[in-house]
């Protein structure tokens, strides 16, 4: 067994019980060697079922011949081939658009307990770190490509990150393998290609082990990032816990434990937390967190981000996105109050207990509402909401129950959500599908 086979088999040991192995097969050198190695290994070892997946971008005329080339090699190795044709949304970066389309296809192809294997190697890792360094990336970015990560219903794994391109070329020549040379890989107008053809060779002439050293630095950064994530989870546990308004079903954190941390730890914890909700802010945008944190309690601070907003209210910070950023439609007639009422873009409302008589309507706060309370007479709704500390962002979405223009109840607020005798209760289940969770 070749040294590369030994390295590959050892790297894949944790994934031997996977339901299936998929190989991201472009037909280039890296994926060709990876597929050939796996086909050879399965002759002497028990491995999961193996399938090659070729993504056809159709960005250049030469690409139309590549699926046939891949099919010939797969037939020779007795490996099934799946060809996926994608449309690339061309924008500012063709490289990024093609990559996004490719990984969308891989995500769809990777089922439960399956592992997608890609052929990126040590030289690719070094290029990735340099590219991100030039973009001013932090520790997470400088960790470059992770060896493994969740993908689709399974995982993505890069088993060749410790192998150089020279080793792959030597193996390919030894086994008389043929592979596709993508003409676009020589175009130095693309940033990655410029690094590959102009910068890395220059560095290597001065420092022969440059690629290996740079890739090793990426591994150090990956370890440091792991420690930062561990610290973030620890800090977020202290800032977690249920809110008295947990029925809002919004992600939130206690404000005091978070701001007791150093500014660097605050940002680290928030990065970890915000990752679940969409695109993270860049360095310049973190000034928005400082402004939200340092604002007066009555200033209603909001930090606008790419995929939503961070609000500070009631001693907590809250993540709002989707329908929470739009005013709900009202008023609504509740013609069948014995059945739940679906509120457009605002969840569902129901009455529990003895249904009050009369024509019922549902509205939202406009200002100036007055409510009659047993033993307290008429009370201004704004004052009642202030007494209960209802977050300002939620007040305009709280369903209000009316009968003949008389405000009967405010959903979910104790002693305001029922009739004078407590024989019924107004319950609101906010929408839980628009939190922006990814």
TrEMBL record:
Top EC class of this enzyme: ligase
GO molecular function: ATP binding; tRNA(Ile)-lysidine synthase activity
Xref: Pfam families: ATP_bind_3, TilS, TilS_C
Domain of life from the UniProt record: Bacteria
Reactions mediated catalytically: cytidine(34) in tRNA(Ile2) + L-lysine + ATP = lysidine(34) in tRNA(Ile2) + AMP + diphosphate + H(+)
EC number: 6.3.4.19
One GO-annotated biological process of the protein: tRNA modification
InterPro entries found in the cross-reference section: Lysidine-tRNA-synth_C, Rossmann-like_a/b/a_fold, TilS/TtcA_N, tRNA_Ile_lys_synt, tRNA_Ile_lys_synt_N, tRNA_Ile_lys_synt_subst-bd
Compartmental location: Cytoplasm
Every Lysidine-tRNA(Ile) synthetase C-terminal domain range: 360-428
Keywords: ATP-binding, Cytoplasm, Ligase, Nucleotide-binding, tRNA processing
CDD domains per UniProt: TilS_N
Binding site for ATP: 26-31
Any GO CC annotation of this UniProt entry: cytoplasm
Function: Ligates lysine onto the cytidine present at position 34 of the AUA codon-specific tRNA(Ile) that contains the anticodon CAU, in an ATP-dependent manner. Cytidine is converted to lysidine, thus changing the amino acid specificity of the tRNA from methionine to isoleucine.
UniProt free text on domains: The N-terminal region contains the highly conserved SGGXDS motif, predicted to be a P-loop motif involved in ATP binding.
Family from the record: Belongs to the tRNA(Ile)-lysidine synthase family.
Record's protein name: tRNA(Ile)-lysidine synthase
Top-level taxonomy: Bacteria, Pseudomonadati, Pseudomonadota, Gammaproteobacteria, Pseudomonadales
């Amino acid at each position: 067994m070749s040294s590369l086979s030994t390295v590959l088999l050892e790297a894949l040991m944790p994934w031997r019980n996977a339901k299936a192995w998929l190989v991201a097969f472009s037909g280039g050198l890296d994926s060709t060697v990876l597929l050939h190695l796996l086909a050879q290994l399965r002759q002497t070892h028990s491995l999961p079922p193996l399938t090659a997946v070729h993504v056809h971008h159709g960005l250049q005329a030469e690409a139309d011949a590549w699926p046939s080339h891949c099919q010939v090699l797969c037939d020779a190795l007795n490996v099934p081939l799946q060809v996926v044709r994608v449309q690339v949304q061309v924008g500012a970066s063709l490289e990024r658009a093609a990559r996004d389309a490719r990984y969308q296809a891989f995500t769809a192809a990777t089922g439960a307990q399956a592992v997608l294997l890609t052929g990126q190697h040590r030289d690719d890792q070094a290029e990735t770190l340099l590219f991100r360094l030039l973009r001013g990336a932090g520790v997470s970015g400088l960790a470059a490509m992770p060896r493994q990560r969740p993908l689709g219903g399974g995982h993505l794994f890069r088993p060749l990150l410790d192998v150089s391109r020279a080793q792959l070329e030597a193996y390919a020549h030894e086994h008389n393998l043929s592979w596709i040379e993508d003409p676009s890989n020589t175009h130095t107008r693309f940033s990655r290609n410029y690094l590959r053809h102009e910068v890395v060779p220059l560095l290597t002439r001065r420092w022969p082990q440059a690629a290996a050293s740079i890739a090793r630095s990426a591994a150090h950064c990956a370890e440091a990032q792991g420690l930062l994530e561990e610290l973030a989870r620890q800090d977020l546990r202290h800032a977690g816990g249920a809110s008295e308004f947990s029925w809002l079903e919004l992600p939130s954190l206690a404000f005091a434990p978070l701001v007791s941390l150093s500014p660097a730890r605050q940002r680290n914890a928030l990065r970890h937390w915000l990752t679940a909700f969409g695109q993270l802010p860049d360095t310049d945008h973190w000034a928005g967190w400082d402004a939200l944190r340092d604002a007066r309690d009555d200033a209603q601070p909001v930090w606008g981000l790419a995929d939503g907003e961070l609000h500070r209210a009631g001693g907590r910070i809250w993540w709002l996105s989707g329908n929470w950023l739009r005013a709900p439609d009202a008023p609504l007639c509740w013609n069948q109050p014995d059945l739940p009422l679906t509120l457009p873009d605002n969840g569902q409302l129901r009455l529990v207990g003895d249904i009050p008589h009369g024509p019922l309507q549902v509205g939202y706060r406009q200002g100036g509402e007055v409510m009659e309370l047993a033993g307290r007479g008429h009370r201004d709704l704004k004052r009642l909401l202030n007494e209960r500390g209802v977050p300002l962002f939620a007040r305009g979405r709280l369903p209000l129950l009316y009968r003949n223009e008389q405000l009967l109840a405010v959903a979910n607020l104790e002693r305001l959500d029922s009739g004078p005798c407590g024989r019924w209760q107004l319950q609101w289940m906010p929408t839980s599908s628009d939190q922006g969770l990814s």
